[in-house]
Specification:
alpha+beta, 2 domains, six-stranded mixed beta sheet
């Protein structure tokens, strides 16, 4: 796997956004002592502060986390709720959360006790007993009963992030063991055992065999892909985006030689205070993502884009949301065997609490399941789009890079002829 696919740590540009739209409730950019976003999140999480012991027995969803602090020496460990022999899969099933309430989602995550152990990323090649047990857990497709003992009582230190779902109390693990055999799909076992197969090949193989993307992501984090001498642990925040990028790039290459779509199609879905609108138009591949937060008094938005040439650098403004929505769009285009230009608009209402980039992936996926609004021309599509988005379309287009390319090359009427085959 290339370094560019994994270099997902927070960049200066990512951190130096302005106020609420850029801070997203956790970067503390405004200087205020109390953040309203964080206060709301903590008020929900406080009800989960009921852990007072050092030994836990429960069914891990399965779930696993690799931190990025201290890289290349990181904290790793399983996440286990104190519920044994129970179907706890919903606690880590992001693909089902957009139909839940925010209270339910935070409740699931705050119920997960996170074990931590500092290890070197290269230890994936020769794992310790704890890491070996954790890797077995990660390979499972079903919840696994797990015992964890901590040196001290786990501490609840709430951390809400725009890229990864939160978890509950955490502490340093003294020991851990699985009390039942993990249910490991045959193809997963085969890919992990193939120490000559490169990481990208492992990711795409499991995707082709219908293994859940979340499952693939945690396996990448656990260092279970790649040539043996190159295997390493990958921080969870990085692995989420890396999998979206790997799978997206492969589909991008597949659709480049396809015919254009012959009309404008608008897909949209809103859940949990987040609106995703996908605007496809007849064109060679172009993709531009906008993220706007209706929180605070600023007027800033995040924008990243690419043309048919693809991206060579990390999307440092929209970050993970760029890759997960791009992948969903490319998956749709590959399914219909066409290519298109695309604008993705992501709008975040005041009711949202940052619990990870998963919501944009799942909302985009849900949107693309629906019957789209269809228009003959882009101008008509823009009129329809204005009825869906909240932020003025003109302000989006003023800052749009791909729209400038279109306007500079030819008129919209020429660029979107009605007789293009599709």
């Amino acid at each position: 796997m290339s370094n560019s696919s994994l270099n997902m740590s927070s960049s200066p540009s990512e951190i130096n956004r302005n106020l609420c739209q850029k801070c997203q409730g956790f970067r503390k950019l405004c200087g205020k002592g109390i953040c309203p976003i964080f206060v709301k999140a903590k008020s929900i999480a406080e009800i989960q502060k009921t852990f007072s012991k050092t030994d836990f027995f429960g069914a891990s969803p399965p779930s696993f986390f690799v931190g990025e602090y201290g890289y290349p020496r990181v904290f790793i460990g399983p996440l286990v709720p104190p519920l044994a022999s129970v179907d706890t899969s919903i606690y880590d099933a992001e693909e089902q959360w957009i139909f839940k309430t925010m209270d339910e989602i935070v409740g699931y995550r705050m119920s997960l006790v996170r074990g931590k152990k500092a290890v070197k990323i290269k230890s994936a090649r020769d794992p310790s007993k704890l890491l070996e047990i954790t890797q077995e857990l990660v390979m499972s497709s079903k919840p696994v009963d797990t015992e964890m003992s901590f040196i001290k009582r786990p501490k609840l230190d709430i951390d809400f992030s725009p890229r990864v779902a939160p978890s509950g109390p955490s502490g340093i693990i003294k020991k851990a063991q699985l009390t039942e055999n993990p249910k490991i799909p045959r193809v997963v076992d085969k890919v992990v055992s193939d120490t000559d197969l490169k990481a990208i090949g492992g990711v795409t193989k499991l995707y082709d065999d219908k293994i859940n993307q979340r499952h693939i992501t945690r396996m990448l984090s656990a260092g279970l892909f790649g040539v043996k001498k190159n295997r390493r642990l990958v921080p969870t925040t990085w692995s989420i985006t890396a999998v979206d990028d790997i799978l997206g790039k492969r589909l991008w290459k597949k659709i480049l030689n396809k015919d254009w779509i012959n009309n404008v199609r608008i897909f949209s879905h809103k859940a949990l205070g987040n609106l995703v609108v996908i605007f496809l138009y007849p064109s060679g591949w172009m993709f531009e993502a906008f993220e706007y937060w209706f929180i605070g008094s600023g007027d800033a938005m995040a924008i990243d884009w690419e043309t048919w040439k693809g991206r060579k650098t990390y999307a440092k403004d929209v970050v993970g949301a760029y890759y997960c929505t791009r992948f969903q769009v490319l998956e749709y285009l590959e399914y219909i065997q066409r290519q298109a230009g695309c604008f993705v608009f992501m709008e975040v209402d005041k009711e949202w609490i940052p619990t990870g980039v998963w919501r944009f992936r799942e909302i985009a996926r849900e949107a693309l399941k629906k019957r789209p609004l269809v228009f003959d021309a882009v101008e008509q599509g823009f009129l329809g789009l204005k009825k869906i988005i909240q932020y003025p379309l003109e302000k989006y287009l003023e800052k749009s890079n791909t729209y400038k390319i279109i306007r500079s090359q030819r008129t919209l009427k020429d660029y979107f002829p009605k007789d293009i085959h599709g």
